[in-house]
Fold this sequence. Notes:
Blueprint: H1 2-49, H2 53-66, H3 71-83, H4 87-99, H5 105-117, H6 121-129, H7 138-150, H8 154-165, H9 172-185, H10 188-201, H11 206-218, H12 231-247, H13 251-264, H14 270-284
Helix pairs in contact: 2-3, 3-4, 4-5, 5-6, 5-7, 6-7, 7-8, 7-9, 8-9, 9-10, 9-11, 10-11, 11-12, 12-13, 13-14
Amino acid sequence: MRHIAIGALCLGTALTLSACGSSEEAEVNRALKSVNAIDETNLNDVMLSAADPAEAVRYFKRTSGEEPSRIDLRRGLAKSLIRDKRVREAVPAWKKVVAHPDALPEDHVGLAEALIRAGEWERAEATLDSIPPTHESYKRYRLEAMVADSNQEWDRADSFYETALGLTNTPSGVLNNWGYSKLSRGAYGEAEELFAEAITYDPEMFTAKNNLAMARGARGNYDLPVVPMTQTEQAQLMHTMALSAIKQGDVAIGKGLLRSAIDTHPQHFDAAVRALRALEENVAN
Length: 285
């Protein structure tokens, strides 16, 4: 009997050890799976931000094809296609994202952005209208403002731009867009103020500098704005103001600005040279 008891004890111990081994193995597998998930999440973030856009597209196409049920991989593909300027492919990619049962309101915002980039303004507006008003994000209101601009609903556009400003720590882009909206309405003074403010947040934003030059030129002010600029940018802004002057009939001022732009540019400034040559040929004829 004693032998049977000892045997049973040994058997029980063996089973316990076996069970412990299985439990520990399961724990290890779960831990490894968690680590892999973290590593993959980090890789996804890297591919979305730092990787070459075309490389990111290839990565997300492959991984989303392997695991089509995962919305994060679908979302990564859609975002990467936008980064790679493959807008026509991005629209259906975003549609697949919003069709997923785990889609978020911000995914609909992503689809609206892709539609705007594709020039499908009415569908973009309908997509934005479908998003609950309780969902507030910088991107949503920036897009709402752009749609309002396209409809020439100026009061709505101003309201959306102002709301978007309050939802971002990097306001240069929305200030530049708002300034361009004012410029298109003929509100040149307000446009100039918005472009100048955008540059204070991003001194390297040449688009805002160029828009500022256009706003000043539209008011007949052909002096260069006092903003940080490289020698090349100075020449380019002179060229922009020259074209603005010529458009408004101030041809002599325009020619002078073109000559200054050519002399200022550190390299051959072909666009300014061609514009000046065309002006001089017209005068000669």
